[in-house]
Amino acid sequence: MAKVKSAYFCQSCGYESPKWLGKCPACQQWNTFVEEITEKKSSGVPDWKSDTSSIKPRVNKPQKVQEITYTEEQRLITPDKELNRVLGGGIVSGSLILIGGEPGIGKSTLMLQLALTLPKIKVLYVSGEESEQQIKLRAERITPHPLSECFILTETSTQNIFKQIEVLEPNIVVVDSIQTLHSAHIESTPGSVSQVRECTAELMRFAKESNTPVFLIGHITKDGMIAGPKILEHMVDTVLQFEGDRHHVYRILRAIKNRFGSSAELGIYEMQGNGLREVSNPSEILLSLREEALSGVTVSATMEGMRPILIETQALVSNSPYGTPQRSSTGFDTKRMNMLLAVLEKRCGFKLGAKDVFLNIAGGIRIEDPSIDLGLIAAIISSHEDMPISHKICFAAEVGLSGEIRAVTRIEQRIAEAEKLGFEQIFISKYNKKGIDFGKYSINIQPVSKVEEVFELLFG
Ligand code: TYD
Ligand code: MG
């Protein structure tokens, strides 16, 4: 038997040190080191399997690349189209998928809904957070007649979970949440970095050796990181983030890392009284149906993953009643907003220094695509000058530090989406013009190269 060894771990980022430290050299946090046991006795038998188990572990041998067979059946296509898209075309067998998100955003709902609607599949839903009765109530709300064989287990010890898995032999395992699990091999409390790491490692081994997909739900800490972020992200195959504003109905499922598909993909859901509903035509929902133009409101053609989404941006510019003007944005990076304001001050001569500026992206959605820049700038000036911009105009271009209008990716898709939704004019960068067949579109495409030029065209 090996003797027990311990080390100190930063509870914030998982940094390991042989001695106690006041400040973490990795994440610069103070007072985060806790001693944890690192070595356990090893018996040679995988944690998830007893000797009498009927699940046969996969034995790996070297194989010639040419001889490795790859079939479509390796992916399980779920009834949830958004989830399939985000996963890169369905659930890959033997993959370990982490779903992160803030409390109350709908992670448990999403997973339970998946567990209930997979036809003829045996799912084990392990919950360390809620009782069977609570889960039953939620399941009734989502679907009164489950299509799958869904088993609920309220248990937090990984060893006990593996015992039940051996008996049940499920096709899919869902764990809600990784922070509630504990392994008997480690003495620290559930949720601590070493427990999370150990439990994930055990589940990883189970997933790979039995070829069963495992979903892990993980809570996100205040600063937006999945607890023990670095270790978990490296261990799992796929990291999905479930986000949105709890007070809005829309939720976004984003792939942050995906070994089996693009990490730029995104799924949109609407939270309803009976669970989450897929949103397949996001633009139509995210645009408010305005009959008339309002000042400070513009529409941008952004891309999220492979999908174009038209989204409304709102700006409010007002005189600052106090000495220091307020700058705040919802759904958009405040630093980038400040940069755009500086461009307007310096390059275009607008005096915004003594103004409060508020930005808002409709629907409680966060946009990272820089193609929203031009639309935002137009919204700010529209509010500042109190001159409305026609609601038949939309924008798709990035703005550079010298006020130049820069090209964006997949411009044709954006133009097509704008045309589909009935817009009459789209402003794009002149550097995006090449290769576009203008005759193909009935929408008026307006190439521009400088911010001033845009204002000239819009406000005369
Ligand atoms: P939940 O899945 O418990 O969130 P998480 O697991 O991420 O903490 O979702 C909680 C919220 O979702 C809660 O405020 C109630 C709401 N909800 C609905 O609006 N409709 C539903 O059908 C369900 C099941 C939940
Ligand atoms: Mg939950």
Automatic annotation (TrEMBL):
Residues noted as binding ATP in the record, renumbered to the chain: 101-108
Occurrences of domain RecA family profile (ranges): 72-220
PROSITE patterns, per database record: RECA_2
Coiled-coil regions listed: none
Keywords associated with the record: ATP-binding, DNA damage, DNA repair, DNA-binding, Hydrolase, Metal-binding, Nucleotide-binding, Stress response, Zinc, Zinc-finger
Pfam families: AAA_25, ChlI, Zn_ribbon_LapB
Region named Lon-protease-like: 356-460
Motif (RadA KNRFG motif): 257-261
Record InterPro entries: AAA+_ATPase, DNA_repair_RadA, P-loop_NTPase, RecA_ATP-bd, Ribosomal_Su5_D2-typ_SF, Ribsml_uS5_D2-typ_fold_subgr, Rubredoxin_2
Residues passing through the membrane, by range: none
Entry superkingdom: Bacteria
Gene3D superfamilies: 3.30.230.10, P-loop containing nucleotide triphosphate hydrolases
SUPFAM superfamilies (UniProt xref): P-loop containing nucleoside triphosphate hydrolases, Ribosomal protein S5 domain 2-like
Function: DNA-dependent ATPase involved in processing of recombination intermediates, plays a role in repairing DNA breaks. Stimulates the branch migration of RecA-mediated strand transfer reactions, allowing the 3' invading strand to extend heteroduplex DNA faster. Binds ssDNA in the presence of ADP but not other nucleotides, has ATPase activity that is stimulated by ssDNA and various branched DNA structures, but inhibited by SSB. Does not have RecA's homology-searching function.
Domain notes: The middle region has homology to RecA with ATPase motifs including the RadA KNRFG motif, while the C-terminus is homologous to Lon protease.
Protein family per UniProt: Belongs to the RecA family. RadA subfamily.
Protein name per the record: DNA repair protein RadA
Organism: Pseudopedobacter beijingensis
